[in-house]
Amino acid sequence: MADLKLMSVRKSYGQVDVIHGVDLEVNHGEFVVFVGPSGCGKSTLLRMIAGLEDITGGDIIIDGTYMNDVDATDRGLAMVFQSYALYPHMTVRKNLSFGLEIAKVPRDEIERRVAEAARILKIEDYLDRHPAKLSGGQRQRVAIGRAIVREPKIFLFDEPLSNLDAELRVATRVEIAKLHERLGATMIYVTHDQVEAMTMADKIVVLRNGIVEQVGAPLDLYNHPANLFVAGFIGSPKMNLLDGHVADVRPGEVDVEIAGNIRVSVPVAHRLAKGDAVTLGIRPEHFLRAGADAANLKLTVDFVEGLGGETLVYGALPGASQPVIVKLDGQHRIENGTSLSLAMQPDQMHLFDSNGRALQRASATAAAA
Amino acid sequence: MATITSTSSRWDAFARQWRRGRSGYMFLIPWLIGFFALTLGPALASLYLAFTKYDILTPPVFTGLDNFRYMFLQDYRFRQALQVTFTYVLWSVPLKLGLALLIAIALDKGTRGVDLYRAIFYLPSLIGGSVAIAVLWRQLFDRDGLTDQLLQLLGWPPGTSILNNPDHALKTLIVLSVWQFGAPMVIFLAGLRQIPQDLHEAARMDGAKTMQRFFRITLPMLAPVIFFNLIMQTIDAFKAFTQAFVVSAGTGGPIDSTLFYTLYLYQEGFAFFRMGYASALAWFLLIIIAAFTALTFLSAKYWVHYDDTR
Question: Do B29 and B75 belong to one domain?
Fold first, then answer.
């Protein structure tokens, strides 16, 4: 168990910068997830922490020790690879004990740790098989076991579930979360799947193009995305983003006009001037079905997905080019092409300025429009 | 009546088949002639001759096991030839494979201009087995050769030709063979590139240093390629002939110190016209090579692991 500090960590390949000065603190026992679209630099950042990639600038500090020039072999970290990277010529037992033998751990201690890891991961029955004789899920467990036996300072996971089928992915996700709870170890986990990030992380680091867009607890990111990118990336289905402008400014509140001359009052603390371009964000689950008379939003329905527990409605607001997704609890009979009357929950709306930065809400209890 | 019809229809079917495949068979003919007339025929003939006394000029006389009895019980040159050949195989094969692997690893590090170096290092394998190079080596190491002059500079007495010294002649031929490491090197290089990078990275994360990774990851992962190279090079080494023939002018000298098995076989057959005995020698060499290959195959299950996870 250890803490980790990244200070202005940079990476460039020749002229191309792939990581632009990342600052990050990871505390003892934290589960941190790096999430972002492909090519955002999350795996590169993880490999830099591991020591498998050189860093171009900045400092990596683990437990107060500068690691910049320490080779991967001496950092005392363990990594679970996307491809599992099991040694094909060794049995499962050998795969697990390899790192301990290298470290000259006494034989009985090795046996104890291997047995313990095998028990935790339920791979006791395969210890004498070669990786080729295992299924994908079993190989994944062995790869995790190889990390566990070493009792590393920090566990690093590089998209470990992406080669598993959907069902196994969910099951393994839960197991890794449980494992974290049980070991209390510091873990850093890379994924492009925001559901994995939301469900496993104590702290999510959202990356785009080698820049940290936001760091925070999963629900903080969901409730208070710092910018349009995080707003669109966290949450499924995605947040609806509607272009508009400021129509009126009142203390603690602005009126935003979006396409179709629809006016919405949003409680924000920031100073805005009349006519400023803004983007209004509202998550699909924060629409309400309203009576035809009370509602000022009429959604023209394109398509409906009934999932049983919830219903997803795809459509567009009159005069708006941007599509809108609405998520309603339970089951609804809605015909394609009809008009759906909706209301927005004002305290759940997000407003972004013309640079894509979120404008802080006045307060969660602001009065409805 | 019925039989005649059926026979003729079978003939028709055969004729149709022939017409359809005719051009294919025509293309096969040169190869078939080569195989039967130049390989299988002589091989079977030599198997018979191995049990005869045959001087080429008069018809072969069947002598039973006489050739083999003489070979194993009386022929001291046969023993010398075996010893020379085994010494050669046991030294040149590991040395050559070791050097080939070393160079392959150096080239695999992805230095600039790898392709050029690979071609340069492969060159000796293309030309090294040729008579011209053997002649060149003879000039280098012979009395008054370049090495002789160099050794004189270092204070050795003149005329100490390495190739004329029974203590050094075979060593020189071993070095000459190790120099032709190109073919196994290219195969090693391909094998090294097949090892997934993330295995090396996983081993690094497991704390394994460069040498530990080499012995515990690279070598075992290369085992199938080492196995292949070992068999090919062993067979090649047992069949070594040209260099010994050229540097010793076909004598196997000095004092039979370069009397390779194949050279002895050649002398018996084409210098002393004991073709029956030469045939017996040839078949015994085949048995030796087969036995070595079989041993290597049997040992493989203890050290060769095929990666079938992907």
Answer: no
